[in-house]
Design a protein that fits this description.
alpha+beta; 25% helix; globular; three-stranded antiparallel sheet
């Protein structure tokens, strides 16, 4: 969480996502001036949507379902 954040800070990345499989959530952060602010924390049953790319929408449920090994 911190190492990449500092890399993104230095590079001026305008927005990034953290996909957290332990908490089953997607967190989107956007650069506001010199610091990142959470755009949202999205959980199963919700759609994570980018501010930078409004057409980019991801189902949190589908994201974590796709990561499960198929038997």
């Amino acid at each position: 969480y911190e190492e990449k954040k500092s890399d993104y800070d230095r590079a001026g990345i305008p927005e990034y996502c953290i996909v957290d499989p332990k908490q089953k959530q997607i967190k989107i952060l956007t650069l506001d001036g010199e610091s990142y602010q959470p755009l949202g924390i999205f959980k199963p049953g919700q759609q994570a949507q980018s501010k930078l790319l409004p057409e980019f929408v991801v189902s949190v449920t589908d994201t974590f379902a796709a990561a499960k090994p198929q038997s």
